[in-house]
């Protein structure tokens, strides 16, 4: 078995820009002279059926930096790989007449199916927590907006915490304070983890640059994750041609059952 | 050696799945049952999501019942007319069952209902079977002839209207109880992933008074079609039939069944029934423990794209 395939995608993202940067979404705040550039060698990743998770490496550079501040380590970078969004329901079990039953539930609107965060250091020390929270960076600050009627809202916190905890325990939400490293003066390398159960679809790589605790610039690149292989073909058939798939499953059963009875017949 | 199950979305050890299929196939060959009521709980114990376990279990039932159905058809021990009436009820029941399945899934109570149904059905059927076989064994020990319970008296079921003549079974019976029985079994097939033979056979013998000679073949006839229909409907509404899992199970299952049949022929009827009853009870007890002990995590997260 080829377990733990390590997939490293990289590109030098100098200011000359890579092929993917044409689609990048840029954000520049205030009058800071610094600019942030990031790049990945491809905008599409194909994942084979024996995929067990991998690290994605993103390269980036700070343009127009202040050499003094850089030398003192005053620049900090956060890189996030955010998966496609979908509604998610959290359910809570309670004991009813001696058995455990799902009694309460809460649905959060459009939350990412995967979220990997990498930073130069713990995000709480990069900028004032309020700023980080306002920008919605990190699992703890992710916007979890409940759908529909939730009563007096007293259980909101408990459901949000349970959601974050379960997603982190299952490995689809991860953080790595120290995953971003400077490899030369202004060139940095970020590795974010693609979990084994990485969802299909368009992911977004976002990079944020902070200078002395102030947000300077952000940059985002789309990344398509496409699963390939037999298993993926089966999944696609099951969802796109469900009746044919069902008929095929039945035919397979008929052939197997009948075949065995012919094969093992004594006469 | 692991294999990735595309619909269940998890990696499993293929040897465990093969072993499970072979063991259940062996038992189903030995006792002459479909094995759906064993395979689905076993898959759930092995952390396969219940939604996938049920739909895939129905697919396994098709494979394990078809060869028996063909054998009975060749021997002419299927009452096609009676089977068709059962089947009509069964198809309606399976359709309603799949709808119920989707509804329960969307409100988050599917796993609970599946477990509860299993506990109730396995507990009662296993208990009754054990009781009956113990009595039979006692009588056999005292050398008393075991009376065949086939008294000629009629019960209220035989007073119902819409009567029809079933030539092969040599009975004149209302279609209402037959279709109703088929309907109930159809619901069980789609909600629990079982063929339902372990309920249908006794019901046909004791309630409808259908001759034993055609009961097994006719019930297999209904099971093959209803479970095949359930697989197709489950696949097209809930997308929960895992063909990789089903294929591994059925390959191991049909081979295991061949050896089970040989062992089964050497055991005596009432011993066989007592063993089966103990097995059924054990699975029921194991499932009820799961419902009673506090779960590891009282919270669970379900994504809208693939709702468990």
From TrEMBL, chain A:
<keyword id="KW-0812">Transmembrane</keyword>
<keyword id="KW-0732">Signal</keyword>
<feature type="signal peptide">
    <location>
        <begin position="1"/>
        <end position="22"/>
    </location>
</feature>
<dbReference type="InterPro" id="IPR019088">
    <property type="entry name" value="CHP02186-rel_TM"/>
</dbReference>
<keyword id="KW-1133">Transmembrane helix</keyword>
<protein>
    <submittedName>
        <fullName>Transmembrane protein</fullName>
    </submittedName>
</protein>
<keyword id="KW-0472">Membrane</keyword>
<feature type="transmembrane region" description="Helical">
    <location>
        <begin position="243"/>
        <end position="264"/>
    </location>
</feature>
<dbReference type="Pfam" id="PF09608">
    <property type="entry name" value="Alph_Pro_TM"/>
</dbReference>
UniProtKB/TrEMBL annotation, chain B:
<feature type="transmembrane region" description="Helical">
    <location>
        <begin position="171"/>
        <end position="200"/>
    </location>
</feature>
<feature type="transmembrane region" description="Helical">
    <location>
        <begin position="206"/>
        <end position="232"/>
    </location>
</feature>
<keyword id="KW-1133">Transmembrane helix</keyword>
<dbReference type="Pfam" id="PF01925">
    <property type="entry name" value="TauE"/>
</dbReference>
<dbReference type="InterPro" id="IPR051598">
    <property type="entry name" value="TSUP/Inactive_protease-like"/>
</dbReference>
<feature type="transmembrane region" description="Helical">
    <location>
        <begin position="82"/>
        <end position="101"/>
    </location>
</feature>
<keyword id="KW-0812">Transmembrane</keyword>
<feature type="transmembrane region" description="Helical">
    <location>
        <begin position="113"/>
        <end position="131"/>
    </location>
</feature>
<comment type="similarity">
    <text>Belongs to the 4-toluene sulfonate uptake permease (TSUP) (TC 2.A.102) family.</text>
</comment>
<keyword id="KW-1003">Cell membrane</keyword>
<dbReference type="GO" id="GO:0005886">
    <property type="term" value="C:plasma membrane"/>
</dbReference>
<protein>
    <recommendedName>
        <fullName>Probable membrane transporter protein</fullName>
    </recommendedName>
</protein>
<feature type="transmembrane region" description="Helical">
    <location>
        <begin position="12"/>
        <end position="45"/>
    </location>
</feature>
<feature type="transmembrane region" description="Helical">
    <location>
        <begin position="239"/>
        <end position="260"/>
    </location>
</feature>
<keyword id="KW-0472">Membrane</keyword>
<feature type="transmembrane region" description="Helical">
    <location>
        <begin position="272"/>
        <end position="293"/>
    </location>
</feature>
<dbReference type="InterPro" id="IPR002781">
    <property type="entry name" value="TM_pro_TauE-like"/>
</dbReference>
């Amino acid at each position: 078995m080829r377990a733990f395939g390590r997939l490293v995608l990289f590109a030098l993202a100098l200011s000359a820009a890579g092929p993917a940067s044409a689609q990048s979404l840029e954000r520049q705040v205030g009058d800071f002279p610094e600019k942030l550039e990031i790049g990945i060698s491809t905008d599409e990743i194909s994942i084979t059926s024996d995929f067990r998770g991998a690290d994605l490496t993103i390269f980036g550079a700070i343009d127009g930096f202040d050499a003094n501040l850089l030398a003192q380590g005053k620049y900090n970078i956060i890189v996030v790989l955010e998966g496609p969004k979908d509604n998610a329901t959290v359910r809570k079990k309670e004991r009813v007449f001696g058995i455990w039953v799902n009694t309460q539930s809460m649905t959060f609107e459009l939350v990412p199916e995967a979220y990997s965060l990498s930073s130069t250091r713990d995000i709480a020390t990069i900028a004032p927590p309020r700023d980080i929270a306002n920008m919605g960076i990190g699992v703890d600050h992710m916007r979890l907006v409940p759908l529909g009627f939730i009563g007096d809202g007293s259980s909101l916190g408990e459901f949000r915490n349970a959601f974050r905890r379960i997603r982190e325990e299952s490995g689809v939400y991860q953080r790595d304070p120290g995953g971003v490293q400077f490899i030369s003066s202004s060139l940095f390398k970020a590795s974010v983890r693609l979990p084994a159960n990485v969802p299909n679809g368009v992911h977004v790589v976002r990079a944020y640059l902070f200078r002395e605790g102030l947000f300077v610039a952000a940059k985002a690149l789309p990344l398509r994750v496409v699963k390939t292989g037999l298993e993926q073909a089966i999944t696609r058939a099951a969802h796109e041609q469900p009746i044919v798939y069902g008929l095929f499953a039945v035919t397979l059963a008929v052939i197997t059952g009948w075949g065995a009875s012919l094969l093992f017949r004594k006469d | 050696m692991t294999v990735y199950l595309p619909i269940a979305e998890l990696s499993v050890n293929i040897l465990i799945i093969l072993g499970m299929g072979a063991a259940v196939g062996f038992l189903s060959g030995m006792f002459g049952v479909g094995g759906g009521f064993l395979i689905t709980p076993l898959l759930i114990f092995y952390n396969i999501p219940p939604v996938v376990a049920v739909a895939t279990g129905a697919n396994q039932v098709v494979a394990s019942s078809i060869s028996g159905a063909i054998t009975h058809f060749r021997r002419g021990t299927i009452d096609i007319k009676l089977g068709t009436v059962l089947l009509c009820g069964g198809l309606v029941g399976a359709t309603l069952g799949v709808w119920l399945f989707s509804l329960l899934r969307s409100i988050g109570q599917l796993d609970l209902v599946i477990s509860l149904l299993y506990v109730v059905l396995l507990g009662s059927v296993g208990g009754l079977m054990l009781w009956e076989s113990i009595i039979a064994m006692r009588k056999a020990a005292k050398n008393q002839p075991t009376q065949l319970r086939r008294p000629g008296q009629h019960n209220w079921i035989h007073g119902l209207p819409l009567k029809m003549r079933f030539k092969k079974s040599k009975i004149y019976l209302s279609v209402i109880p037959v279709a109703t029985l088929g309907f109930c079994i159809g619901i069980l097939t789609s909600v629990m992933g079982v063929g339902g033979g372990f309920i249908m056979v006794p019901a046909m013998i004791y309630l409808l008074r259908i001759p034993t000679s055609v009961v097994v073949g006719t019930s297999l006839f209904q099971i093959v079609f209803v479970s095949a229909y359930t697989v197709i409907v489950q696949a097209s509404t809930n997308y929960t039939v895992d063909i990789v899992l089903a294929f591994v199970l059925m390959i191991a299952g049909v081979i295991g069944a061949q050896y089970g049949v040989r062992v089964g022929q050497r055991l005596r009827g009432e011993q066989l029934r007592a063993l089966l009853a103990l097995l059924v009870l054990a699975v029921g007890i194991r499932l009820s423990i799961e419902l009673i002990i506090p779960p590891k995590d009282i919270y669970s997260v379900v994504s809208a794209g693939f709702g468990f």
